[in-house]
Amino acid sequence: MKRILGVAAVLGVLTMVAGTRPAASAPCAPLDLCVNPCPVLIQFDANCFAHETAYNTTTFISTAGSKLDVVGLITQFGPALPFLNPNDPNKEYTFRLTGLTSQGTKVGANGPTTLYDCDYDSSTVGTFAIYEGTPRNAPATPAAWAANPWGGAVVPANFQDGTVILSGTLCGFHTGIAKTGLTVSGSFRSNYHVTGGTLFPYIAGTEALLGGNWCANLSGCHPANYSAHPNGKFDASNATTPASRSTWGRIKLIYH
Amino acid sequence: MKRVALLLLSAALLAVAGPAFATGGEDELLISFTGFDYQNPNPSGTYLDLGEGYKVVGFVTSAGPIIATYIDFTSYEYTIYIRDLTVNGRFFTFPNLTVTFANNGRGSYYADNFPADGGTAATYGINPPNATAPSTFIDGTSDPNTGERITGDIDNFVLVYNFTTNQGSFAGNMTLDGGPDLTYIPVPQRAGWVLGGLLGPPNATIPAGYDHQVDGECRIPGKTPAAHKTWGAIKALYR
Asked: Which residue in B221, B102, B87, B215 sits closest to B156, CA to CA?
């Protein structure tokens, strides 16, 4: 009986932790630590672009309330998901970040550099979802991206078809763009927390980093109609413990 | 006379424009990479103090269309090494840091056989430079497809970092000028850029002694559409 109560208590706590993410603008949960440096969980590179509903691509200003979405193709999976092959000709792994609401770009300066910082937490909590779909139907070349603006028949639709293999929430999504003379650079950073998806048991509980390069140069990095080109990764954490499939019988045996 | 003046003005503007950001046509990816950065030499306790050096080691994660045919991730390990960048300007107003670097830094990507084929797995280790970094990121074997594949000169390199948001970025002009795979890059596409996003602590991915996680790209100008014309048609443009 005690065991049953114990299991129920653990499940209850897990449900509460998974179900109650910090409200937007509240501090994010501490990142998980790793015994050794945390490896990559998911990498995305060239075929990833951001779109905002109220953003000036020339001035890098995001208007407060602007909605940010990011879609992309996954190029690598780390050791926690060794059975997924992003180069499988019959499958496509894509992702979408959404529900990110701009708090408005703050412009600052430091020496020769003009800084454009923007938080994307507000009354809503950002979310992410990673999809496994067939066939490969998302844009994968600069020409295909240019031909498929956001809101058309292909983007974001073809990035969110198939099975959701991982999903969860984002916390503290922030972009920083810096302009020094003609040199422009940028980055993005966010916590992510996995709460669902068919591969949830492999990744459950992760509170880890999502981030990377944020190239905001119009005509340099991204097609018109998109606001930036992110290139980065979801990092793994200790919570991403390699798991194995089991039966209910075996699981019940653990508690006998 | 007006035409001549306009032509001279246009030529002058083109000459000073250089490989500037956001001024030309769409550029394209050469390689994407992920890795970690560190200071070397690092005699001062101040982060990237004047005269100190900046380096990045990491792995190539994908290749753009222009060299994708010549990159084989199933047979080789691909790595990058950015070096020879010396701080010549430092501006710090908490929480923001801007660091500028002297020209003539270098950036390269390398191929190595996997250990099963006689290569050495690239290993970060701790407190670089160390026994494995950068050495295992820049080595090759007797296989002619290994070693430094493309290298380039980096100018106008700038790094910024925000110690409150714990993130930053770098960018510089990169002119590809060497390596056996340079032949695959047409001359008009060799003046590109190196860009990177930096994620600092708290960040459990960073090995001890490295400063930031780096995700970046080397980008090059896209192909310029061209059309065949006669001299007569070209001369007609200026009449």
From this structure: B102
Q: Which two structure tokens, joined as six digits, stand for B145?
A: 């497809």
* pLDDT digit string (tens) for chain B, length 239 residues: 455 444 444 444 333 333 333 334 578 899 999 999 999 999 999 999 999 999 999 999 999 999 999 999 999 999 999 999 999 999 999 999 999 999 999 999 999 999 999 999 999 999 999 999 999 999 999 999 999 999 999 999 999 999 999 999 999 999 999 999 999 999 999 999 999 999 999 999 999 999 999 999 999 988 765 566 677 776 776 66
Q: How far is CA A233 from the centre of its chain?
A: 8
Asked whether the beta carbons of residue B89 and residue A181 sit closer than 8 angstroms, the reply is: no
The 3-state DSSP class for residue A252 equals: helix
Gap from A116 CA to chain B (nearest CA, Å): 11
User: Which of A135, A186, A168 lies closest to A234, judged by CA?
Assistant: A168
**Rounded to two decimals, what is the model's pTM?**
0.85
Measured in whole angstroms, how far is the alpha carbon of residue B186 from the centre of its chain? 18
Residue A237 and residue B204 in contact, taking contact as beta carbons nearer than 8 Å = yes
> Residue B58 in contact with residue B79, Cβ under 8 Å?
yes
Return phi, psi of residue A57, to 5°: -75, -15
d(CA B13, CA B164): 40
For residues A228 and A212, is the Cβ–Cβ distance under 8 A?
Answer: no
**Could you tell me how far CA A214 lies from the centroid of its own chain?**
13
* A residues 72-111 closer than 8 Å to B (CB): 75-76, 108, 110-111
Asked if B202 is an interface residue toward chain A (Cβ–Cβ < 8 A), one would say: yes
Give A63: exposed, middle or buried? Use CB within 10 Å, 0-12, 13-18, 19+: middle
Phi, psi of A147 (to 5 degrees): -85, -10
E-strand spans in A78-157? 92-101, 106-110, 113-119, 127-133
- Half-sphere exposure (Cβ direction) of A54: Cα atoms closer than 13 Å: 14
Place of tokens 């000459």: B15
* Chain-chain contact of B197 with A213 (C-beta, under 8 angstroms): yes
